[in-house]
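**Archive record**
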Amino acid sequence: MEKIFKLKENNTTVGTELLAGLTTFMTMAYILIVNPDILSYAGMAKEAVFTATAISTIIATLMMAFYAKYPFALAPGMGLNAFFAFTAAGLFGWQIALIAVFIEGIVFALMSLFKVREKIFDSIPKNLKLAVSAGIGLFIAFIGLVNGGLVVANIPAVPVTIGDLGNISVILMLSGLVITMILLGLKIKGALLWGILATWIIGIFCELTGLYVVNIEAGVYSLIPNGIFSPPPSVADINIFAALRHVASGVEGLNVFNFIVVVFAFLFVDVFDTIGTVIGVSEKAGFLDNDGKLPRVKQVLLSDAVGTIVGAGLGTSTVTTYVESAAGVAEGGKTGLTALTVAALFGIALFFSPIFAAIPSFATAPALVLVGFYMIQNVVKINFKDPTEGIPSFLAIVAMPLMYSIADGIVFGVLSYVILKLFTGNRKDVSIVMYIISVLFILKLVSRATLGY
């Protein structure tokens, strides 16, 4: 382990890396349940999508572990899977949507090989990188609050509000938040993980005593594992070959322009969600150098691209670097051994899905909220005294949670940065790459206005 991951050089230990990997896994294992549910709306079999989700996560994260050697985990991305199921598949069917993801992954890989994405990464100003990190902190905290039921939407005249404090799931989430805060305050190693496990165990006790009532129709599932072992289902009916066979049999009324726009949309969100996540987590972990650049960024981005190709090949939506990697970084994860641990645990989950499927979102929600606490700390490093630096940073920070998108936060941050610099006589601060990115962002906004995404 020392030879492969250089643990001493990175001031870490095997124990710390294993614990960090376990923590990251616990905060992102929900994707094994959520992704199949979402893609099932596109007509894909849940059981097969579960297998595709797990295997694509394992392969992409292993590449991150041994090739890039960073503690980042990868899996099918939230938001991207919703776009796949409700927009792309709605337009063309899941088969052509899957082909679009496969093509996007290939383009993504070529961009990585020719360092296009690396240039994009390096071109983003230091203050915006800090803002992205802080914005992701708010975003991931917001995800935790929503997953825990403490924040709800669909209230007349009010976009979001506090959830039902009488709901047992919300009570358990709040209990977990209090427990985890105390553990952090006591500086207990692995506080986030122990908080998750403690909350889950309390939930099981509440189910056994009748306080937590299972109601599948209402989306309230049992916290007690339904069995232990389950062999992984086949992906033969949902993989890229099944999609290509469908296309070969004949497709009528395919709008090529809309198909290209969908590929671009997948590419856009994947590029900037990944860049935003890598910037944010890297800043928190201290991986960025004095110029705000990330060593081995090409390897990171190529791992992400290969994950998307593999994922589409197996039968799932775009694979991307996970913001939940910040949970492992917060526990001290610094090397690829953390990522290797995550991959190994997803490998276990592939065969013991009933156990991992029983971990509820209210148990992982407190960890996400408190990871947000760690990441928001970067906001104090931003130069708010200069409006041309501070305003774009502010817009990027608030846009991410309020628009529920890392990519959209980057769009508003970059566009406002370029506009302010141009009209305040600071053109020298804007690189050619930033101008190109701005034009692409504008085109993306136009495509959203016409296509709806």
Remarks:
- The chain has one domain: 2-146+231-357+382-451.
- Residues 2-146+231-357+382-451 form one domain.
